[in-house]
Automatic annotation (TrEMBL):
CDD domains the record matches: HNHc
Keyword Kinase: no
Organism of derivation: Gordonia jacobaea
Alphabetical list of SMART domains matching this protein: HNHc
A single MF term (Gene Ontology): endonuclease activity
Protein name: HNH endonuclease
Top-rank taxon, per record: Bacteria
One Pfam family of this chain: HNH
Gene3D superfamilies: 1.10.30.50
Keywords: Endonuclease, Hydrolase, Nuclease
Amino acid sequence: MPTDPLTLGQQLVAVLEGGRRTSTYKLAVMVALLDLAVESVPDDPSAEVPIDLDDLTDRVMAQYWTQLRPLSEKDHVTLRQSRDGRGVVFDALVTLREHCSTPSLREMPIESAKLAAPEAYSVAHTKVKKNLVRYPLHLLQQVGTGSHECFLYDDAWMGKASTRAIADHGNRLVLFAGVCHTLARLAPLVKPAFQLAWVDDVRHMNRDILDDGPDIADHLFGTERVSLTRPAGILAEHFGNDCFYCNAHLRTSRHVDHVLPWSRVGIDGLANLVLACPSCNTSKSDVLPAPAYVIRALDRGQDVIDALAGEIRWPSQYGRVEAASHGLYSTQPDTTPIWLGAKHIQPLKRVDFGRWDVEL
Ligand SMILES: [Zn+2]
């Protein structure tokens, strides 16, 4: 039996409400787990699913990476993510950033930093992974006081920063039977709630510097997070300067659209990016596109996308787009709104992403 969504949903809400957090790390871990669940949906909804701890660590690091950039070009203020402004995870990323000679973090996704400074990345990664196992992964399911019941994965072996213990457990955690499928199904509801709590925590942790209330939600999770100038250039050069959705020629105003909405899957890789006219981009917003669009984006070809991404030193993430498409469309209910084109939204029709013959 897959896990009951209502019960799991209540447990996740309890994680959100479980007392004051001293840092945002539990929230980052939970958002990373939700994204990984969407990309790992098994064919059998009731299956156990292993989550690789290296992957999980990469995802947590990627979330904090863009959040390290200063609030504005002028003041160089970096927002605190823990009450005392310190923490192994954030400090490791600051050190990694010092190894990367880039003028702006918005111009350099962490995957590019990994290529530019592999040793520094590896050092940071090891520190972050051990810390995640010791604290947020170990404590995530402790809601309320007293003894706790694991509802996502077994955390009994966690709680110490030991490379040996991690290796002994296969460098992974295992989502209990049915949990992955249910997490993926709940992700569209739960992920925004965790991000809202994250914004709220950061606001509390930085009260002294945020009195005028700049839009930190946008700073942490908005479109300002990353500069898509380089992907836009290479997409126009290779695929033409036209809207991917309606084919309109793009003259003065050109948007870069995340085919699978960033809010859903957090994928900035080139495989998930297309050029769009303002009208299509605005009307599509955070709605899931018709599966045929995703298939057309993937049909540009992994070799082509990987090569173009390499040219601009940008991540491709082709495999992630494939995996997330499968997870998103196979777990959402039939009533889910689907974007078919400008101002044309209708409920989801099922597609099988294993087959490539789906027409609009
Ligand atoms: Zn268009």
